[in-house]
Specification:
The protein has 149 residues and is mainly alpha-helical. The protein is built from 4 helices and 4 strands; from the N terminus they run H-E-E-E-H-H-E-H. Strand 1 and strand 2 form a beta hairpin.
Length: 149
């Protein structure tokens, strides 16, 4: 097995992992590439830029762990939108819950537009039902008061 030279492109790419460094917490010398200090247990790989321990080249930033962000669509918003066409009251409830879920998620949950559409459609549906029931009550009430001579 061949050992890589310190000035090779691979050594430049991995940066400070090839250099021994003192632990930023206890000052103990650590081995090159160590992720944790053997004495105090501090995570050496998680050093923030700008807080890099001494002994490292300042031109090479430490590696950064990037977590992929997985966005999803709110199930409550979808259910609220669909239910708004079938049962306005349930559609309104589910749409409001989906809208609140989207607002609290800090951008990780989509479906806010579906939730708002479900709220609007449900509100219109409820209004139509209320008008329909009031009209029926008015017609039935007027039929009882009609006198035939």
């Amino acid at each position: 097995m061949t050992q890589k030279r310190r000035d090779s492109p691979c050594a430049a790419r991995v940066g400070w992992y090839h250099h021994a460094m003192p632990c930023p917490k206890c000052g103990t010398a650590t081995t090159p590439g160590a992720a944790f200090c053997a004495v105090c247990g501090i995570n050496l790989a998680a050093q923030m830029p700008g807080q890099m321990p001494t002994g490292f080249p300042s031109s090479i930033p430490p590696p950064v762990m990037v977590m992929p962000s997985v966005r999803r669509t709110s199930g409550m918003a979808i259910a609220g939108f669909v239910l708004s066409f079938v049962c306005s009251l349930l559609g309104l409830i589910f749409s409001i819950m989906g809208h609140n879920e989207c607002k609290r998620s800090e951008g990780m949950v989509d479906g806010d537009g579906l939730a708002i559409a479900g709220i609007v459609i449900s509100a219109i549906g409820l209004l139509i039902w209320i008008i329909y029931i009031v009209a029926i009550i008015a017609v039935v009430g007027s039929a009882h008061h009609t006198h035939y001579y």
